[in-house]
Structure formats: C-alpha cells, structure tokens
C-alpha cells in the first residue's frame, strides 16, 4: 500500500523541530530501517592497525565497511570486536546527541587505497578518511536530522551501503507532486542552491560562483582536538 504523501513531509531547511506526521495503522512502516544519508569529509584516528590489516587481507573490495560503536564519550570503529580507531571529540558530541536512541545504527566506509596508506604510515598521526552512514527507523528520521543540524552536521547523498533499504534524507527538500527520487538537497553554503550528488570532499571548490569554502567550517566537525 503506498505511503500517504504527508508521511513523506520533511523539515524545512534548518528547522529545529521534527515535522508532524499523520500516524496510520499499518504495522511495521515506522519500524522499517532506512538510510538517512552520509556524513562525509570526516576522519577517524587509527590507534591499532591489526584489525585494519586483517580486513584488508580478507576483502578485495574497493571499499571497506566497519561498525561504529559508542564507548564512553567516544565513537569507535570496530572490526570483529577489535576497536582500532576513534572519531574526534566534536563529531562524537554531535553524534551522541543525535543517536541517543539505541535503534540508530552507524557504519563507516573507507576506500581500500586510503586504508592501505594509513597502515603504511609509520610516523605522525594516522587518520582514516571515512564516510559515516546513518540508519534508523523511519519514525526517527526527522528527530535525528534536527539534532544533527543543531550540531552543524549535515547529511549528504551516500556512496556506499544502501542495498535494498530506502534512502530518505531528513536534510533533503522534497516537493509535493514530484517523484521521490527527484531530491533537492539543502545547501550548507550560503548562496548555493543545490549540492551536487557527485560532490567529493576532495574537491577544491563547488562552483565558479562560490568563494572557496573551508571544509572544516562547512561541516563543523574537524577542527576540534582529539
């Protein structure tokens, strides 16, 4: 049975409260796990490389996937119960507020090339460039999105881990009457109208008309001390 259009209502840009929804009687719709989007342009500090080396040996895929679990005040990357990397303090604080419900699930993805470079580095801090996917039941999507926005963390289109799940980003503007796959992403940069789904955090600029943006300011998650 199709979901009523008002069930798909999203927050207005940077709205701080979840939008209201009409509750329908079908069981399971609001418990369905969906993908809310990805946090991109962030890093995890590699503390132990044994788990990462083992994962590289066991998988030949272009990207590697790891669970992200909370321990104390920090979120850690885990492989087969081996905790080997952690996110920075400011990102952990924002994620703690947004994922206080136990049904929220996080997964981190890193390219094979970046993982190998981190393992091979012998001196200095070893950072893993990662993307973090957020999965949650449908009825938590607006609440998670609003809390992330308050922490200046904005979800982007994901490159990994969608599978058969629905993708419904709470930081995306949907217009009534348009197909669900015609999405308009909220801009996190003043003056720009849309974020290109093919955007990479390694891009030097987003547009010829937009001044160069400091990515740390844009995502608000990387300048804090570990």
Write the layout of secondary structure elements.
Elements: E1 33-46, H1 50-58, E2 63-71, E3 74-79, E4 82-87, H2 89-98, E5 105-111, H3 112-120, E6 127-137, H4 141-150, E7 172-173, E8 184-185, H5 215-219
Antiparallel strand pairs: 1-4, 1-6, 2-3, 2-5, 3-4, 5-6, 7-8
Helix pairs in contact: 2-4
What this model shows, in words?
With 226 residues, this protein is of the alpha+beta class. It is built from five helices and eight strands. It has helices at residues 50-58, 89-98, 112-120, 141-150, 215-219, and strands at 33-46, 63-71, 74-79, 82-87, 105-111, 127-137, 172-173, 184-185. Strands 1-4-3-2-5-6 form a six-stranded antiparallel barrel. A two-stranded antiparallel ribbon has the order 7-8. A hairpin with a 2-residue loop joins β3 and β4 (82-87). α2 (89-98) runs antiparallel to α4 (141-150). The longest helix is centred in the middle third of the chain and has 10 residues, at 89-98. The model is unreliable at 1-27, 180-213 and 215-224 (pLDDT under 50). Keywords: ATP-binding, Helicase, Hydrolase, Nucleotide-binding. GO terms for molecular function: helicase activity. This is Helicase C-terminal. It comes from Penicillium hordei.
Distance from N terminus to C terminus (CA atoms, Å) equals 48 Å
Radius of gyration: 18 Å
| Order of neighbouring strands in the sheet with most strands | 1-4-3-2-5-6
H/E element sequence: EHEEEHEHEHEEH
Number of strands: 8
| Helix run count | 5
| Mean of residue pLDDT values | 74
Q: What structural category do the secondary elements indicate?
A: alpha+beta
Q: Which regions are unreliable across 5 or more consecutive residues at pLDDT < 50?
A: 1-27, 180-213, 215-224
| Structural shape | globular
Helix content: 10-25%
